[in-house]
Amino acid sequence: MFDVSSSKPTLLVIDDIPENLTLMYQLLKDEYKIKGANSGLKGISIAESTSPDLILLDIMMPDMDGFAVCEQLKANPTTAHIPVIFLTAKSEQLDEYKGLKLGAVDYITKPIHPDIVKARVRAHVSLKLAHDILRGEKASLENEVARRTQELVRQREELHTIQDVAFYAMVSLAETRDNETGNHIRRTQTYIKLLAENLRNNPHYALQLDDRTIDLLYKSAPLHDIGKIGISDTILLKQGKLTEDEFEIMKTHTTIGYEAIQKAELVTGKSIEFLRYAKDIAYAHHEHWDGRGYPLGLAGNDIPLAARLMAIADVYDALISRRVYKPAFTHRDAVQLIWEGRGTHFDPDIVDVFMAINEELYAVALRYAN
């Protein structure tokens, strides 16, 4: 089949009659690069390999008619965007409707009128080239958006890494002040996660404890005793019971921790959800359900949920761990003491969850034993 190379737009003419191919070539060769095919299968092959700007397609062909060719072209992502004009002696409206429904952009009946053919081809080629420009711009824009999105993701991951390093540096600093706590931080953050995951089975807490919130609780839990950095070693590491005055000083670790986290948040100039949970935990994890805790004497649901969860996690771990001022309680005794604190020291709903999963919590304690 003929193929005249040039920088002109490319037309593909598909017709089984050689005279018709020659006629279209002579008519359009001055404005376009013409490719021809004398069967539907050859036409499809040429369209797939060269991606012409427009296809002029005869309907009445043996083996594979124009409707079948058009349907196959439109089903292939490589050729679906190429406009198709049907050329046919058939003039019934039903045939025209069928062709347009298959995806053709126009319908020219034979015998052809040269000026009409040129005008319609010119219009559809211009429209196709305009679409190509838009497609190119869209692709370029999508690539740029993808590039910028990837860069933002990289920057965000880098920022999270920096935040994690700073965070664990703070936690490690707190641990060095109280070297007998060992894996206390790892255990308590795992306890609080397990408690929260099971508490959300209670319909009252389901909306408050989605996956993101539980993840934030897990990440912020290690800061619960960050305020101990501000407590002197003579009190923090004292072997024996604290005096009343010493205990009053020890209680200030909640306020010191809250203020330290709040200052860190102020440095960023914006509210950070992770730090909000950390503040709640640091400030209120020694509050009691009956209002007899510290530092504010909050009671019931006025105590932030994050702090109510940490209260049980912290006390349970303190009970089963040896300290310079006491031996470790057995798991069974610790569970009994937590139960006895239901509705006074601790949130009753969380105690109920604790009782249901206490063996899981004990397994965590054994896994991360000092």
Automatic annotation (TrEMBL):
Entry-annotated residues carrying 4-aspartylphosphate: 58
Q: Which PROSITE patterns does the UniProt record give? A: HD_GYP, RESPONSE_REGULATORY
Q: Does the keyword DNA damage apply?
A: no
Citing just one GO molecular function, the answer is:
phosphoric diester hydrolase activity
Which residues lie in coiled coils? 131-158
Keyword Phosphoprotein tagged: yes
Q: Where is the Response regulatory domain?
A: 10-125
- The HD-GYP domain extends over 159-370
Query: One GO biological process from the UniProt record?
Result: phosphorelay signal transduction system
One matching Pfam family = Response_reg
Known InterPro entries for this protein? Answer: CheY-like_superfamily, Cyclic_di-GMP/3'3'-cGAMP_PDE, HD/PDEase_dom, HD_GYP_dom, Sig_transdc_resp-reg_receiver
UniProt entry keywords in alphabetical sequence:
Coiled coil, Phosphoprotein
Protein known as: Chemotaxis protein CheY
Originating organism: Vibrio furnissii
